[in-house]
Amino acid sequence: MIDKKSYINKLVQLKAPSVNNASAYAPSNIALCKYWGKKNLELNLPTTPSLSISLRDRGSHAKLSLASQNLLSINGVNALSDSPSFKRTFDFVNLFTSEKLAVHSRNTIPTAAGLASSASYFAALVMALNKIFDWQAPISTLSCLARLGSGSACRSLQHGFVKWFNCDDPWQSYGELMDIQWEELRIGLLIFDAKEKAILSRQAMLHTQKTSPFYQTWCENSRSDFVLLHKAIEQKNFTQMGETAEYNALSLHAVMLAARPAIIYSQPTTLQAVSKVHELRSAGVEVYLTQDAGPNLKLLFLKKDLNAIQAAFAELEVINPFSTVNLIDNGVS
Ligand code: PMV
């Protein structure tokens, strides 16, 4: 298989910058069918297809400027040059240029707490690079490039339901927008812990893949979940979508629990909230949950149940993924 540098060279024409600065915004995304495991480490090709919903105004703004030395600031705080975020950023940026850049990023979602901030960050970074170097690349190409920074970033270049279906062909392995608007759909964020997660998803997925005896079974199930979810979304079948998304996530956490040593992202507050979601469902309020590489939960529900769900979860942050309100200062062209 082709190496990363040659892959990039075939996707975009690397050249000198055409402007001094550029900025872009990318939404975070929550996977309803998870990406967990790699078929190819070099090019970040996934073992299974995944499908997500974008979080509209929750995501990352990235501003790039030509500079005399590399600099990274996250939410106004400069990152140390030996910090993991600095290294990860410039390992990525240096794949495209030898120019020094100042990268100012601002996240409207907690950083590295299983809330997909790295997905929106790499997507915003790629969109800003596209502007500064005037690649004029289509979304599919930018999605392939973002995938190299973080797999789930390939689903963060568009607003709405995005599927990442192709796991084998590096040229076709990108996020594709589904042509579906679902105005009644709501996402609730239950943030119990906004601190950085203990085990990064990259390490955690490799560890699960290598050591959990249930990993292959999860992959088989997840391929069926993808098909079910895709159909449920097309038909706007909320029950089918919610049930499948919740099953996909909880079964993944079960697989991680069986890794050696076990990976446990849930905290007591996570499990209390899972019970509460199940109690609400028993009481007739249709709400489902999903969980990523962290203790926080994301709830899926419809607008009609907003009051009941807010009454149960006072701390819930509600997102309308299909809001028609303009994004302010989004920098997206
Ligand atoms: O893209 P990564 O390496 O941060 O992995 C993302 C993993 C999950 O968020 C748990 C699942 C997903 O599909 O987004």
Average pLDDT number: 94
How many angstroms separate the termini?
A: 34 Å
The outline comes out as globular
- Tell me the Rg in angstroms: 19 Å
What is the chain-wise order of helices and strands? HEEEEEEHEHHEEEHHHHEEHE
The total of beta strands comes to 13
Structural class by helix and strand composition: alpha+beta
Question: What are the segments in which pLDDT stays under 50 over at least 5 consecutive residues?
Answer: 329-333
Spell out the blueprint of helices and strands.
Elements: H1 4-11, E1 21-33, E2 38-40, E3 45-46, E4 50-66, E5 71-74, E6 77-78, H2 84-93, E7 101-107, H3 117-132, H4 139-149, E8 161-164, E9 175-177, E10 185-190, H5 201-211, H6 215-234, H7 238-257, H8 268-282, E11 288-291, E12 297-302, H9 306-312, E13 317-319
Parallel strand pairs: 5-7
Antiparallel strand pairs: 1-4, 2-3, 4-7, 4-8, 5-6, 8-9, 10-12, 10-13, 11-12
Helix pairs in contact: 3-4, 6-7
The structure holds (3R)-3-hydroxy-3-methyl-5-(phosphonooxy)pentanoic acid.
How would you sum up this structure, described in words?
- This protein starts with a helix and ends in a 14-residue tail after the last strand.
- Strands 1, 4, 5, 6, 7, 8 and 9 form a seven-stranded mixed beta sheet that branches.
- The protein is globular.
- It has nine helices and 13 strands.
- The protein has 333 residues and is an alpha+beta fold.
- Residues 31, 34-36, 50, 116, 118-119, 150-152, 201-202, 292-293 line the site of (3R)-3-hydroxy-3-methyl-5-(phosphonooxy)pentanoic acid.
